[in-house]
Amino acid sequence: MDAFPAQDSLLPHGDHVKTRRVVRRRKQKKEESLITALCSWIVEHQIGLAINLVLLLSLTHICFPRARPHTRKFFEMAYYNPDTQAYTRGIDDMYLVFFWIVAFTGLRMGSMEYLLQPFAQWGGIESKKARTRFAEQGWMVMYDSVFWSLGMYLMYKSDYWFNLKALWEGYPPIHMSGTMKWYYLVQFAFWLQQLFVVNIEERRKDFWQMFTHHIFTCALLFASYGWYQHKVGNVILCTMDVVDILLPLAKMFNYLGLRTLCDVTFGIFITVWFVTRHIFYPLVCRAIYVDLPVLGCYDSITGAKIEGEENTSIWSNISQPFTRPGGHVCFNDNIRLLFLGMLLALQVLMILWFVMISRLACSVIMGKVAEDPRSDDEGEDSYEEFEIDDHFDAEWDEEHAIEEEVGVEGLSARPKGGPSGRRGKRPVARTSAISIPGHGDHKELLGRIGCDKPS
Predict the structure, then answer these.
(1) How many domains does the chain have?
(2) Fewest CB atoms less than 10 Å from the CB: which of 123, 163, 275, 422?
(3) Is 374 a member of any domain?
(4) Confidence at 21, pLDDT banded by 50, 70, 90
(5) The pTM is what?
(6) 257 in a domain, yes or no?
(7) In terms of residue numbers, what domain contains 107?
(8) Is residue 37 scored above 60 in pLDDT?
């Protein structure tokens, strides 16, 4: 500033003000590899890629009749039996799964960008990151509301509604209704797509727990579908999906500043979690251990039991519809223990989560305030700050120097070490979560549990 040197005239002869300049420059990004750049490009163009792939398949199906026997597999369910008016399963089902992975990618981003984020802005959420978080939770509420309702409808209309022994009656259930098949394949596609989503979202503290959960879920869906256990899968999905509605809904209420609705929804969530995941879910596991079908091999076309045949293999039986259509499928202890082990491993993971949820509930009841477990407090841009003595003759390249703060305001009285000018951090939404002993301060809390504080 021109006025600043004039201050020397007010000081004793020979004394000068020693000034320091605060120079802020944007942190340089590390050079990206080709693969990283490609992944970033895919993430930034999810809607366009999804629409173009669907249009390409649709136009190919319409314009090239010879390609229709192949392209129809992406749009229609395969293996329809007109005699039974039901469906069986096979490798061609994976075409429909692929189609819905692409469709969910476009639907998710389209809903977030053009429906949920504008709604969040209308609701008064100012932070861009908070709006993104709101949109992510909103998409989960939309999806799980539809598919939990559909799953409950299928279960209510079945013979295993509150009758777990019926899960094993008539094993193997060769045929399934069109609604059940579509429901199961689309659920499988959704969880495969979630493996992609959990890696493109900003990483939370419980990234590895969520990633492990998604791996187990996808493995169980694939194996249960191939091994004719879609009835059990339907029950387990219904016990899981309901809490995936309530927790995101509580977070959405809190982002919107509706604290009372958030607290009530969170209380319902804790109750429903305990009942479905720690009472109903273990009952299904018990049924797998106790109410087993008769061990042995069965004809995958008629379902008739084949006497005198035994097969203790795991993979060949689980993949039978895909690798040996029309072959025999066997029920053995090795597969039973595999399924039971995977389901119990999920139960252990859910118990750990429930302990964290309970601690959060206790902290809320005690009136404690939890801090943000995620990196939402970071500004949208990252800067480095440097303090430079005025007498130090340093030259800064213009492309590195973002802004310079120097002048009379630097002489204002403030505690040493206090904030000096703009520090490059902008206010953003804060969140709350659970305190985990042994993880240092509150910043090591579980990121996906609890109501987020509105901006």
Answers:
(1) 1
(2) 163
(3) no
(4) low
(5) 0.73
(6) yes
(7) 42-361
(8) yes
